From TrEMBL:
Coiled coil: none annotated. Keywords: DNA-binding. This is HTH merR-type domain-containing protein. Residues 108-178 form the HTH merR-type domain.
């Protein structure tokens, strides 16, 4: 046959008559014709086997080159698993997703069907398999195709639900592996984390609304001299995101100690912060006592006198970043170098007026010499939001 196909018709003898041709499909046509329209074009043998070969290698080839519509020059990395539902039985795997193993037939689902059932993508299922979150019950040794059991659908649907709620994969893995009581505690922890994030987003939304309505607020920043102070304080470690919560906690510890000791103190309440933000940073809340010395159980903080830049913020504490924006801008524009600790003085507190009428004095000590012009600092209230 090969000799006949490669011999010009004018020189080839007539083929022998045959009763049966085996191994050929009706989709294959063999013909001899000029390859191009140019009269000088040579006669060649042309067939239409390209489509059949494309289908063959797209389904059975190694490495897999993609579905029949894919270009044979562009390899595919999808492993061919999406095409399983349309592939006829081979290697012990049936068209219907059944696996024949030692004579036993198991009802398994191909990765494509399982993905559609559980509202996940094939890519997600592969990733969950690689990370150990949800492994298939069987992987075909020859093709590498993954197969899932119907009873895995509950875990897969739970994963899809929790991912929709933006839970990290590590948390989802612990949730699936935990006993009911532990699982409930894990989910409550994530609920609290989500509530905290929503609260921060609400604060950002309120500030954006204020900026959209009235533009950047105009704060009057003044330069002056602050006198020396000695404060009785309580200290705590916290992260930038939990400053507001920790300040309230410190106030709740400070005032009862002063009350039990019968020590009078001079308003306002003070909050002290470092210039540089980091996890585990120390903050302090304190007051200036009339005797100049606090009871046992409280720390002592000496605030030296000197030059400071200050401004006053009127409104909720959640909008203090607007005031700090103006204060730090004024410091940097003057070439001044801020010094720790940053100080907040609560002039009018939440027990006296509504949130919109709170009054807070912001104070940042500075030195006039600016040695490192690339150095910039942010108060925790400013950067945490």
């Amino acid at each position: 046959m090969a000799q006949y196909l490669h011999t010009p018709k004018s020189q080839s003898p007539a083929p022998h008559a045959a009763d049966v041709l085996e191994g050929l499909t009706t989709a294959i046509t063999v013909d001899q014709q000029r390859i191009g329209s140019d009269p000088r074009s040579t006669v060649g043998t042309a067939t239409d086997t390209d489509a059949m070969l494309r289908i063959l290698f797209s389904r059975l080839g190694r490495p897999h080159i993609g579905p029949p519509s894919a270009s044979p020059d562009v390899p595919s990395d999808d492993g061919g698993e999406e095409e399983q539902d349309d592939v006829a039985a081979h290697g012990g795997l049936s068209h219907g997703g059944r696996v024949h193993h030692d004579g036993v037939q198991d009802e398994l689902l191909t990765i494509g069907r399982f993905a559609r059932l559980c509202r996940l993508s094939v890519k997600q299922l592969r990733h969950y398999d690689e990370t150990g979150l949800l492994a298939p019950v069987r992987v075909d040794a020859g093709s590498g195709y993954r197969y899932y059991a119907p009873e895995q659908a509950r875990d897969a649907l739970t994963i899809a639900l929790l991912r929709e709620m933006d839970l990290p994969l590590a948390v989802i893995a612990r949730t699936l592996a935990a006993e009911p009581e532990s699982r409930a505690q894990i989910l409550r922890t994530e609920r609290d984390r989500l509530a905290e994030r929503i609260s921060r987003d609400q604060t950002r939304l309120e500030m954006l609304e204020r900026l959209a309505e009235g533009g950047l607020p105009g704060y009057e920043v003044t330069i002056g001299r602050e006198r020396e102070r000695r404060l009785s304080v309580v200290r705590t470690d916290c992260s930038p995101a939990r400053i507001g919560e920790k300040v309230e906690e410190c106030v709740g510890r400070l005032l009862p100690v002063l009350g039990r000791a019968g020590i009078a103190w001079e308003p306002p309440l003070w909050a002290l912060y470092p210039l540089d933000l980091e996890e585990g940073m120390e903050i302090a809340v304190g007051v200036q006592t009339l005797e100049g010395q606090g009871p046992s159980g409280l720390g002592l903080e000496a605030l030296p006198g000197g030059m400071v830049a200050e401004t006053v913020h009127i409104g909720p504490c959640t909008q203090l970043p607007l005031a700090y924006n103006a204060l730090f801008a004024a410091i940097h524009e003057r070439g001044l170098r801020p010094q720790a600790p940053v100080r907040e003085a609560c002039l009018v507190g939440p027990t006296e007026v509504p949130q919109e009428e709170l009054m807070t004095r912001l104070i940042i000590p500075f030195r006039r010499a600016w040695h490192d012009k690339g150095e910039r600092h942010q108060c925790p209230r400013y950067a945490a939001l």
